[in-house]
Structure formats: C-alpha cells, structure tokens
Amino acid sequence: DFVVRGEGEETLIELLSALENDQDVDAIAGIAFRKDNQTVVTPARRVMKDLDRLPLPAWELANIASYRSIWMKHHGYFSLNIATTRGCPFKCNWCAKPIYGNRYNSRSPANVISEIELLIRNYQPDHFWIADDIFGLKPGWVTEFRDLVLHHHLRFRYKIQSRADLLLERDTVTALAESGAQTVWIGAESGSQKILDAMDKGITVAQIREATSLLREKGLKVGFFLQFGYLGED
C-alpha cells in the first residue's frame, strides 16, 4: 500500500503511527502511495546525519544459532555483519546510489565498539564483515577505533572495503592491523589507467600498487574488486 523511499527508520515509525491512529499520511516525508486513483509522492526525507541516534539492531530477533552452524560447517569460523557508515562521497560513474546519493555519514567509534562488545558477549563471533562501502573515511576514525579496541581488550578479526587512495598513510594501515583487520577489499576496478579515468574513479594504478604493498607489509590480505569489459575497453 505504501512505498518507503530512502532511509526507512524514521519514515516507517511515522507511517505506522499515523495508520494506527487513523491520521492523514499526506504530510509524511519519504513515502509514495495511491489516493483517489492518483499516485502521491511526498517530499524526500532528509538523510540522517547523526547515526548514533539509532538504537542498536535487535539482534535477539535473529536466529543466530542457524547462522553460526552454517558458517562453522562451511568455513570453520563464525562471522557476523555490521555497518559503521552510510553512503559514499565519491563519484564513480557506474555506481548506483538510490538511497544516500553522494552523502557519507558515520557512527562514532564508541558507538560501533558498543555493538561489537554486545555481539561478542552474546554470540561469540570470531570475525566481522564490516559491510560499509567505504570504511573509516573520516580523519582519525580508524586510529580512534583501534585505541578503543585495545582499551576494551577486544580480540576479533574483521574485513572491510576501501579505496586505494585512502590506504596510503602508514598510520592508518597500522591502526587497521592493530585493531584486528585481516582482509581489505579495494575497489581497484581495473589495471588500466585509461579505464580508471573513463570510470571517473579518481585513483591511479600506482596508488593501487602502493596501497597493496603497504597493506601486505602489515600482514593484511588484499582483495580486488575488478570489472572487465567496461565501455572503451578492448
């Protein structure tokens, strides 16, 4: 009956409350619906900037035991997904951004640590996939995260996704390694500078090489996302 457009948390609460109380929904931002045989699309809701306002996910509603069983059977360890950011400010011309656009907003390191502590205490994962498009973009975020991991005596492994040009600072890569990072997936996309430029990727082949070398030097595994057959490629 209704389409919730963009981020859903605040919109869904307002919509359900209005329906429960038989109130008009026309003023609720971020929805689309049919009324009198016409499609009504309300103005977009503003993207949420303060992600720490959100409560932690209701992990107790998921059947974690089933996930643990399948992970252990196929991989020999147990991994859970978490997210620390929303969005990506870069402008690769092939990328779809229907919800966040070019915005980038981040939870605080302390807020993320509180979720990791809860998950370790309740479910004992061995590993986390931090599923952000871009992990730790804000200056100082990764080092503060590392400091909190060490302060709270937390031990876990994790993997992230990032960009080569964000992994050229030795302090950042050291902090990743010291906080438990095991694998870094880089959106390398191509080994051809011509194709990278055609993508508006904003990185160079030399940066991919340098970042890879620095990550491996710190004992981190490196994965590449690669695209073949891009427009202009022969």
Descriptive report:
The protein has 234 residues and is α/β, with parallel strands linked by helices. The chain is 34% helix and 20% strand. The longest helix has 15 residues.
Find the structural class using helix and strand composition.
alpha/beta
Q: Give the % helix.
A: 25-40%
* SSE order, one letter for each helix or strand: EHEEHEEEHEHEHEHHE
Q: How many strand segments?
A: 10
Radius of gyration: 21 Å
Mean pLDDT: 95
Are there runs of 5+ residues with pLDDT below 50, and where? none
Principal-axis shape equals globular
Query: Treating each run of at least 4 consecutive H or I residues as one helix, how many helices?
Result: 7
- Report the major sheet: 5 strands, parallel
- Portion in strands: 15-25%
Distance between the first and last residues' Cα: 47 Å
**Order of strands across the biggest sheet?**
4-7-8-9-10
Structural topology:
Layout: E1 2-4, H1 9-20, E2 31-35, E3 38-41, H2 64-75, E4 79-82, E5 85-87, E6 104-106, H3 109-123, E7 127-130, H4 141-151, E8 157-162, H5 170-179, E9 181-189, H6 193-198, H7 205-217, E10 221-226
Helix pairs in contact: 3-4, 4-5
